[in-house]
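P.,

For your records, the input lines for the assembly:
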Amino acid sequence: MKTRGIRLRLAQMEVIPADPAANTARMLDLIEAAKKDRVVLIAFPEMAIPGYLIGDMWEREAFLRDCQAAGEQIRKASKGILVVFGNVGVDWKRKNEDGRVRKYNACFVAHNKAFHGPSKGPYPFVIKTLLPNYREFDDSRHFCDVRKLAIEEGKKMEALIAPVSVNGLSLGCILCEDAWDMDYGVSPLTILGKHPLDLVLNISCSPFTLNKNHKRNQVFSRHAVTLKTPLAYVNNVGLQNNGKTVYTFDGASCVYDSHGNEVTDLAPFEDGVITFDLPTDKKAPFGRPVTLTEDGITEIYQALRYGTGKFMRLCGATKVAVGVSGGIDSAVVAALYGTLLKPENLLLVNMPSRFNSSTTIALSRTLAANLGCFYTELSIEAGVRLTAAQVDRLDIRSPDGRLRKSLKLTEFMKENVQARDRSARVLAAVASAFGGVFTCNGNKSETTVGYVTFYGDLAGYLATIADLWKWEVYALGHHLNDHVYRKTVIPDACFTLTPSAELSPAQAVDEGKGDPLHYPYHDRLFASWVEWWNRATPEDILTWFLAGTLESKIGYAGNLRSLFPTNAAFIADLERWWTLYQGMAVAKRIQAPPVLAVKRRAFGFDHREAQTKVWFGRRYEELKRKAME
Amino acid sequence: MKTRGIRLRLAQMEVIPADPAANTARMLDLIEAAKKDRVVLIAFPEMAIPGYLIGDMWEREAFLRDCQAAGEQIRKASKGILVVFGNVGVDWKRKNEDGRVRKYNACFVAHNKAFHGPSKGPYPFVIKTLLPNYREFDDSRHFCDVRKLAIEEGKKMEALIAPVSVNGLSLGCILCEDAWDMDYGVSPLTILGKHPLDLVLNISCSPFTLNKNHKRNQVFSRHAVTLKTPLAYVNNVGLQNNGKTVYTFDGASCVYDSHGNEVTDLAPFEDGVITFDLPTDKKAPFGRPVTLTEDGITEIYQALRYGTGKFMRLCGATKVAVGVSGGIDSAVVAALYGTLLKPENLLLVNMPSRFNSSTTIALSRTLAANLGCFYTELSIEAGVRLTAAQVDRLDIRSPDGRLRKSLKLTEFMKENVQARDRSARVLAAVASAFGGVFTCNGNKSETTVGYVTFYGDLAGYLATIADLWKWEVYALGHHLNDHVYRKTVIPDACFTLTPSAELSPAQAVDEGKGDPLHYPYHDRLFASWVEWWNRATPEDILTWFLAGTLESKIGYAGNLRSLFPTNAAFIADLERWWTLYQGMAVAKRIQAPPVLAVKRRAFGFDHREAQTKVWFGRRYEELKRKAME
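Structure tokens returned:
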């Protein structure tokens, strides 16, 4: 690159997790196309061959052999072209600390049928140095750390982290987290920067998270400036999951010039390539300044729509039934599926009981009319009556007659009977007869405190909007009407109706009665518990409330003193929801469907939790004692 | 210890996860009692103050402050006594690699109101060196590794790993995994062994796993011999979980003499202390030879009973409803609860449909009679008929009338309707009216391949026997009759009946029809996929089958060629179950109740998995092609 330009291609391909054959076939096609286009270097994402979020598949040696064989195919295809790609690096002679074979999260550089690694390193590949073990990441579970390798080899880190010299180029190859070095004791880029570098390549498998791209722009453009070297970033698209939590990958691949400006020409979530001629002079500017606008509901919509479509295909689901209540949550879910499915593959089912108002039934029908899809109403009255008749006042006894007892369903139990009748009896059967799956429509606010019934509204094949607070559900609804459909698909009244489960007279929407949550406050309160990096606890919340700063701390627009006239009222509310969040809601989340993640701390693998006694903390107890005096 | 004996006490206490106040109060009581008994050194388990499996509680700074304050209470109580205990070690001035505050899994040594750490170390506590990141363990998610600290400090490992010298004693303090060093690049005990040592102390928080104690006896006694030093092991009892998987802790604390012989006097799962006068001469023998019998069904029963009882208390459940089918699984679950609950707190519910034989209904009644508990029969016929009437031949249409369609429930769908009617409609309502919870009775064989219905038999508050293969369920049933009840509580016919879901005429037990699984073979096949450390894959299975060695490899007593007359038949069976295990069963496990773990690779956190396309592997496809020729 010192004397000539370099035609660079970033392959923002869809990586299919646990399908090395399909990924490799795709890569071979892309390599052949790149050769025809006189591309000098084509770069693929991290773990492009195996996929990344594949649970404990790494423990299967036959799978590792498949991945290695696939890597060999890529090597053999590298005649006349530089191919950089992610794969698992296996050392069959060493062990990981779990006693299984040694594995690295590795970046391979192939050229003219040979692999090239750092000159003094023990392997013909580059090892990921910084292994993330937070959020949904478990890198240390499967992959060996360069620092442990350095101690094992009796070498300094600098001997293992070095550029790859190949075809006259000095490439600084890093993997994903390696560039996010601010909190690590080691900086691979600082070590690489001590060498002459023509190009830094970051290959990643980095899920979409609200506002991450903007953070990445800040971090990566600064690296390019510091190193005075262009930095190319290649990330995959597609869908990967670790069971409980489902992630979309938006790609967002790009190149930064040595001034920190950016070039990209692929939309997020788009499978395709970026081809770019890097100028001969590595200090020559070629990018546009990075704009740091924050993501909003548009990006959330993109990610949810993309992820839902991909997840349906993963499950083989082509038809979807949505239980619609007339409320905003189910309406938004239905409208979202309406963007993915033909009307004949979408079925909305309204399942009223005697507690459902004609208002919400009419709204459900209007929603279906606006979507033009299948619709049916199926009352749960008969089902609920049957269960009540069978169970309420049921006489149970021991066969010898010694024990006798009559059972009694309370009104609260009957609320749960209704919810289960809807999902597990009616909707599950209707969806199967329709030839499809049914959705879970719970939002993040409800999921946080388990305001949901086991085997009732908790059920479904995917919790499509369980990473959205209630206010975000409203915003998504408006986005769908205003910018996606460009007409009123979700009826206006869905936005203004009192949110209600309509399971009892106490939840009569037409009388303005409904959920016990005051969403404008509780959404923000729950976000401070769940989504903040340093997560707030009752101690923090009570401290701020007593100081009069809680509203500004959590971003609540109202006045809490008018919502809670006394300290006792505030504390009762706080304890009610914290107890549920840390108690029964944990049990419910354990049995919840997979959550489609769009933000930091989606429930599931990004928010690990145990069922324990509910902890408040000793300082909280002191504060409470004083506040109650 | 060179000139005098030392009175040692190991506190095998129950640690309550996420309850530092309760744990600390207990520890202070035990310290006071130890002082009265002239104990020189009292040792508590790893993470005795916070608990260990507490999800992401570690991210809450107020919780960390609680734990630190609790540690201070212990320090202040250490006048005149040596107290060794586990707690989180916090360095507020440094960061972990996730950007949160620096945390260590630490062993504290308190004496005369002061903490004592290794003399050249940066902290007044001992840091866990070997952090397990396999099975259910995620140590690197929250705790900093000594090796990373060594690189950060520019020090050798030897400077950080050293004995604690206190009160004239040289103590080699290690934490749990530190002694399981065979697969690690660093051995803390080898480094400690270069110093004079009076005693090695291993503080642990190590869950019960079938046969682990015997392995531990081998490993730890060898360490004591190698170091020529007595080694004391203290482990907690109690129950901890990480949401999806629930672990029991059996304690099994003991002391090894420098000849590798053992002294212990507490039963497993027993909350209590071991007090022991170590001889003045550290080489003096005092233990009995370690007996290496393997665990069996007795230990599984102990763990299941202990864990079930503790889990009930954690959930606040005092009454339990068990859906009993007359089959062995539900009978064993009912009999297990019968050992924990008074008859008036246990309710067995038989829910026949037209497909249930009078045989199994009678067996259910006999089981209840033998247990003397509540019993009822509640037919699901009316519920199933109602659902079929409402859904089968349901006309759905779009509100504008453009789309019209009639739905149809197939016989297979109606099987699922039955299963859901039982659990989500009837049993859930009955259990709530009874004032209790209901159990999930699925075994590990069914759970592996998802031979279970969503919101049907998959439901429940705890999957009590989901870590037991079918053959282990039978063994547990015999153990309950023969050694626990010492009479026939589970009717003999439950052991001989053809296992069947009784959901269709094709599953008529009285005609010897039932599950599509041939348990004696499939149990062993599934174990090779799930429980083997190097997990078998279709490639291995087919290779062994073709070589005629599969029976001996997996321990199947029969002849597979008589079960599968052709290669094609064998392959069809293999692919059927592997596809389910890696496919639909993953989706079902995501929504399954918590699993009570007793062995390696319980489902959930010890067996992480993603929903992906089902992988077979390229070598498997080749083998199959040849085998089918």
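Two observations worth noting. Chain A has a mean pLDDT of 96. The longest strand of chain A covers residues 82-95.

Regards
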